[in-house]
Amino acid sequence: MGIEVVVEGLTMSFGKQNIWQDVSLTLPAGEVSVMLGPSGTGKTVFLKSLIGLLKPQQGRVLINGVDMVSSPERDIYETRKLFGLMFQDGALFGSMSLFDNIAFPLREHTRKRESEIRRIVMERIELVGLLGAEDKLPGEISGGMRKRAGLARALVLDPQIVLCDEPDSGLDPVRTAYLSQLLIDLNARIDATMLIVTHNLDIAATVPDNMGMFFRRRLVTFGPREVLLTSDEPVVIQFLAGRREGPIGMSEEKDAALLAAEAAGPAAHPSAPRVIVPQLEPSPGLPPRAAVTRRRERVLGMLDQLPPAARAAIRDTYAHHAAAPTLTLPAPGSGS
């Protein structure tokens, strides 16, 4: 099973530029989480902070009792082995075959024999649907195949935490849909804690158990997917709808005068009803995701702490779930 990642009061600056401040959240063990946000809000920086590659000025990242910010370097190095990191561009070595690219972490960090390395690599190649392409160079395959090769490499050390940095970038909608299903299938197979940074609204709507969003140097929200998908925060509404009207500008956030002018003008888009599409399920033949049961118990336990719209959406989700008859849902009027 995956490992819980606890982030407490994390603040990151580069010189005088504050990237984000006082970020606190918990990635639940074995669940899939997505982090959204406009370009330039520090989502990739956040991933690198979790794994200890960048050092925030304040706060802690706790994994199995190790603080990835301030623990001794040897403890951070050992804990880093729990991670698999899928880079935005695949980060493959152009002169190596896909097989050798995927085998690289095993050869670098273990003393396994080549026969064992071959068995592991071919298992991961099959897992991501690349059988038959193992001898090709990265330049000889499509961008989507390079993404999957990068994911296979991230998995060869059996990580308990998988970080994916914009896995959809450069992919067309069909390949993105395949990738979304692959990520869900992967979670069903290995039950790892997963965090995906993306701009893609289709991935955000169908893949995660939990969602968060960065904007204006802060974490706007993080929690069960229903909280963000029903949020009344203007920046969340604008981002999920892909509209020009709202706090997000072309290069940065809009100033108060521009926001006031937009608010005074005619509404360009009527508010559409919020529809939460069902979360993807594992492909036929795969086991059910163990995270689903854990998440249901966790979310129902915190139901009274959530906004009314999120509570209603969660009740609706589980009312239509196959396991709903075994659940005792709080009454619609309970809680704050």
Automatic annotation (TrEMBL):
Residue ranges of coiled coil: none
SUPFAM superfamilies in UniProt: P-loop containing nucleoside triphosphate hydrolases
Gene3D superfamilies cross-referenced by the UniProt entry: P-loop containing nucleotide triphosphate hydrolases
InterPro entries with a match to the protein in the record: AAA+_ATPase, ABC_transporter-like_ATP-bd, ABC_transporter-like_CS, P-loop_NTPase
Keywords of the record: ATP-binding, Nucleotide-binding, Transport
ABC transporter domain: residues covered: 5-241
SMART domains in UniProt: AAA
Gene Ontology molecular function, alphabetical: ATP binding; ATP hydrolysis activity
A Pfam family this chain is assigned to: ABC_tran
Entry annotated with the keyword DNA damage: no
Superkingdom in the source lineage: Bacteria
PANTHER family, alphabetized: INTERMEMBRANE PHOSPHOLIPID TRANSPORT SYSTEM ATP-BINDING PROTEIN MLAF, PROTEIN TRIGALACTOSYLDIACYLGLYCEROL 3, CHLOROPLASTIC
Annotated protein name in UniProt: Phospholipid/cholesterol/gamma-HCH transport system ATP-binding protein
Record lineage: Bacteria, Bacillati, Actinomycetota, Actinomycetes, Kitasatosporales
